[in-house]
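Hey, weird one. I pasted the Inosine 5'-monophosphate dehydrogenase sequence into the form twice and got a warning about non-standard characters only the second time. First submission, copied straight from the form history:
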Amino acid sequence: MYLYFEGIIHNYQMPFQRTTKIRDIMTRKLETIGSTASAHEVAIKMRDKKVSSVLVMDERYGIPLGIVTERDLARKVCVTDKNSTQLLASKVMSFPLIKVNSEVSALEAADLMLKNKVRHLLVVSTESQQEKRENGINEDKDLLKPVGIITPMDFIRYKLVISSGYLSKDSHEDNDTKRILEYYKNDANFD
């Protein structure tokens, strides 16, 4: 089914690909936790904040290292019968962290999820920053700033908003969203 779905994305030119950006449908609620936090603390934060994932950050440099999802907790903590208070978030997290720019289309993000067999993508925006070197020359640097998370649930929410008539709907866009959702519904091999 993956090859069939991949063919749909690459061979069918759709308005969905040009119009709907990830920034329009992503979840902006981005929760973070330090890499030395315990799996137990991660689970509590996820419950309290009502989120399905937490971004694991390097405490020293403030950069994202990985992501802990509900599935990670179930597969790496619960079924292994490990003590969640002794297991570090850095040992439970999924990595490498798959990132997507907030300006890409929803279809490109779905394709990236499928190719990497993940259900959570970190959405980033690029910010330019100038740094002055020791020799006095300014250097331009592009920094990736985490701005949200995209999951299959975001596609479902988007479809519901379109179906309810809150957004203008294109029939191709609706069919493409339906194909994306069907793929995720039928594929049990995602981590």
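That's the output from the first submission. The warning seems to come from a hidden character in my clipboard, not from the data itself. The chain has a mean pLDDT of 78.
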